[in-house]
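Example complex used in Figure S2.
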Amino acid sequence: MTHANLVLLACLAFIVTYGLVVHAFLAVGIDLPGMARLALLAIAAVVPFVLAFLARRRSPHREGRRASTAEKRMLLGCLALAVIVLVPIGIALITTGPREWDGRVAWELRAVRLSTGGYFQPFFTEIGVYSPAREYPLLQPLVLADLSRIVGLETARFVFPALFVVLVVGIFGTLERGLGRPVAILMAASFFVLPGFIGTGAGNIDSGYGELIVALFLCGVGSALAGAPGSSRTTRWQTALFCVSVAGLPMLKPEGTAYAWLALIAGIHALPKHGVVLGSVFTGISCGLVAAVRAHAIPMQAERIVLVACAPLVVILMRAALDSVPAARRALRTVIVAGTVGLLIAATLMLVTVSGSMDAVVDGGFARVASRLRDLPRMLLGSVAVAFDVRKFALLWGLTALALASRSRTADGQRALGAFVVLGLVAAFASLFLVPENDLDHELVSRFDRLLLQWTAPAWVFVGLRLFTTEELHLASPHGRIIPRNDNEPRS
Amino acid sequence: MKAPWTPRVAWVLFIASFAFSLARIPHATWGKRFAQVREFEELGAAGYHLGRTWPEALKIVEWIEANTPSNAVVLWRGTWQGPIEHVVASIGDRLLFDADVAGGIPGSESELLGRPVARGSYEGKTGRVVLVATQEILRMEIVP
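Predicted assembly (636 residues):
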C-alpha cells in the first residue's frame, strides 16, 4: 500500500464511519447534538488509521525509493498547477458559494437547514413542506453542516477542493501501482485539470453538487478492483477499500445504491470470498439505514426497508453458487448472474418508487421504456455527443473507448475494473429510458453529463492501467531492476 | 500483444487531452469563474439565481422578505420545478407549504407547524399569501 493509497482509504473510511453512525442514530429517531457530532468526527478520524494498520499488517509496504530529480521537478510543476487551479476556486467558494442550480437548492440548502435545526424539523419531515430533493441521501449535507458548525459555512465549503485533491491523489496511487511514477504523475495531473471538475458548469468542484464525492467513492471501488500487473489476488487493503467504498455509495445519491450493487457484481471474482461477504453486508447496512432515515420524510413500509437492506446479500449467494458450478457450465453460470442482476434491479425499482425524483418511474414510466426504443438512435447520438464534449471531458471518453478496444496480456488484468466501468456507463445510459420524452434533450446535457462526470475517475484509472502499462515501463525503473508492482509480490 | 498503433494513438490522444485541458484553464477556470463571481456580488444570491431569469419572482421574494415574519409559512401551489425551487432557497428560515394540504388542516388560516402563516396586503387585497408556480413563471395571490 502506497502513501497515496492510504490517503484515499483513510478519507473514505472516515466519511463512511461518520455517515453510518449518524444514519444509525437518525434511523431510530435520534439527532445527535452538536457536541456528540464533534466527538463522532474525532472518533471517525481514528478509524482509518486502525483500518490501515490492519490492512498493512500482512501487506509489506511497496519498496520505497527516492524520487529522481525529474520526478521532483514534475511534482513541483504539479504543485504550481494546483495553485493555479485551486486559487480561483477557493476565492469563488468564499465569496459566492454554489452558483449552479442544484448546488444551491438541492445540496447547500439542506446543509444549511441541517446545521441550524437538525434533521427532525418540518423542512425534512413534513410532507406538506416544499423541500427540494427530500428523497436524496444526506451524507454530503451532513458533513457540510457539521463542518459549518465548527468553522462556518464559507470555510466548510473547502471540503470540496479537499475531496478533489484526495480524488487525484487516489488516482495517482492506483496508477503508481501499475505504471512508472512519472507516467502516474502525468495522468493524475491530466485528471486534475479535467474541465468538468475545474470549469464552471454543474458538477464542478465549487458547484456544491454531489458528483465529486460520488466520483471519489467510485474511484475507491475502481482502485480496489484494479489489478496490478502480475497479481493473482486482491490485497487486504484493496478489500478494505472496496468495502468502505461500496458502503458509502448509497449514502451519497440515489444512483449510489445501484452503483454499489454494480460494484459488488463486478468484484464478485476479483475479491476474496470474505471481501464479497463484507462488501455485501456493509452495502446492505448502508442501504437499509438510508431507507430508514428517508422513511421519516417519505413514508415507507418496514418490510420494504428490510428487503432493500437484504438485497445486496443476494451477491453472497451468487458467489457461493458460482463457486459450486464448474467453469465449463457456462449456461448455468450465466443464469445465476442474470438472476442476481434481475433481483437487484427489482430491489432498485422498489427503492426508487418511493422516491419523488423518480416520478418518471411511478407515473407510467415502464410503458415509456418500450416507447422510448424508437428514440434509441437519438439517445445514442446524444450520449456520444455529450461524452465527446471536449469542453467537459477533454478526450477522456475517447481514451476510454480505446482502452476498451485494446487487447494485450497486460491489459487483461483489468477485467473487473473494465466491467465495472462498462456496467456504470450502461446504467447511466439506461436511466435515459425513464425520463419523459419532452425532457430527453435537457436530461442529456443536464443530467447524463453529470452521470458521466461521476465515472471519470474509475474510467481514467482503467485507461492508465490498460493503455500505458507496458513491459518497457517496467524496465524503465531506476537502477535497471524491476520494482515489485504488487503488494503480494516478494521483495527483490 | 497490443496492436502496434495502440500505444502511439493512446499517447497522442492523452497529450492532446492534457494540452486541451490546460489550455482551458485561463478561460474556464479563471475568466468565466471570476465573471460569475463579479455578477454574483453585484446582484446578490437571489438576484443572481432568480433575478436574471425571473425578475418577477425576485420582486415577490423581496416582498415576502420585507412584509412577512422571518419564521412565516408561505403557502404555495403548482409545479415543484421552475423558479419556485430558487424561492425556497431565497426566503431564509421561512417555509413553503402546499396550499392544498394546508386546506385540510384546521386552524391553518393563521398558523401552521407552530409558525404564523404569511399574510399581507398586495395590489389592494389583504389576506394570506399564496405563491402560484409554473415551470416558467411565479405569481403571487392574496386569498382571504
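The longest helix of chain B spans residues 5-51. Residues 57 and 138 of chain B are 6 Å apart (CA to CA).
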